[in-house]
Write the structure tokens for this entry.
Amino acid sequence: MSAQTGTTGGVAPRATRVGAAAGARGSGLGWVAAMVLAALMVQVSVLPYINIAEGIPDIMAPTVVVIAMLRGTLVGAVAGFSAGLLVELASPVSTLGVLALLYLIVGAWCGRYCEREESTSLAAPLVLSVAGALVVQFGYMLVRLMLGDSMPPSEFVAAVLLPTLVLTALLSPPVLLVGRRLLGAPRVVEPAALR
Amino acid sequence: MASSTNTGIQRRRANLRRAVIASLVVACLALLTGYFREAPSGPLHSVQSSTAGVMAPVQELAGKAVEPFRNGWNYMTSWRDARDRAARLEQENEVLRAAAADNIIRDQELLELRRLNGVGDEVSGYGKVNAALYARSVTAWDRMARINRGRDDGVVRNAPVLAGSERGMQLVGVVTVVRSSSADVAFITDGNTEVGARVPEAGPYPGLLQAVTPGQLRLTMMPREAALADGQMVYTSGFVARGGALPSIYPRGLPVGVVTNFGAREADAQTTVQVTPLVDTRELSYVTVLIPESPEAIRRAEG
């Protein structure tokens, strides 16, 4: 991800970019929806067939992370909720609302970083993507344990968690770069009445 | 004045964000709670099922588009097992050639006895429909998939689902949800599926096959005197093991897997058997659904 320089020679503060960029470009919410739908189709149609042990790559996590980091907490939370809900509706899983809640948490948390100075490297978004996938996997495991399913901890870590995180880390950079290209510079998107 | 206005706007923004996130969290919890409390025919399940039906054509198209890449991935990952599989198959071939000669004679005797006693082959009471898998679960906790055959093709709930393996057709799952042109299949390696099973070579002891962790099967209720050995085939028993009298939704005689380990502690009266399915459901592309046709098969499917 590249840094944006203002007239002072450094990275422009976020508060000015909210107002300044609003006129220069649309909010990009159409691209947000398109990214969520594209990630959904890849996640439910392609990725279940690409696995190491029992781990399946999570492309929704980096998608929600990049949306949240570039458009703020509100858009990130709504995108996360929608992404999780759509995955549960489209994929044969025995839950509803669980993935929606987990991706909502990821989106809401990562949206806070939209209000900080943008990172000049992929490291921070990549770490957040893997952390997001980790939150989703752990959260889902906790819910399944509460529902009576079981899995030995060693098997969960070795066969599910680690392969999932490795595969997610490998798939995240292109998703983050495409997201940055489509959505442009970070700016917090809020309802018009509050500008 | 300007600064107090800005502070007010920031406070309103923060409140709006909190309100939206809180209402989405409440919505998630309501969905989660409602989904688990309601019956499988409830409104949320129906919405989930309807959405699956709407997205089915898109998912099928996407699945076909990426099939070459998927096959390439499976081909590359199969290299690491190829040599071991070849050696194992050569050994099995020798054993099977010897057993085949005995089986021919036994089959003839069995056929004669069945004719005499009026006992039919239970699997012959089913029709067969081939189906392609076009979606599978995105979590390791659900071993489920969607097939492109549904009510319009005769598929019914609780219909057994088979797949091809090195040793012929094998039971891999059961139909759980049926729509007009698609259906959901829960594999036997799913944590919620139980199958009454037996190991004929070990004796006439019915057991219960369950997935203790997703992907692994365990056969319980086998007495210690059962003559178990690694490599023995496990078949459906046609009954639910608990109580032993209730007919199972799975007909008798369907191969399920092979014994790979067994053991018991000193104080245990029963042996626990680890069973490995012959088919890796993660690589499945096509399955065969057994459609109940005979009165006996229809009764089994009704549960």
Remarks:
- Chain B touches chain A through 53 residues (CB under 8 Å).
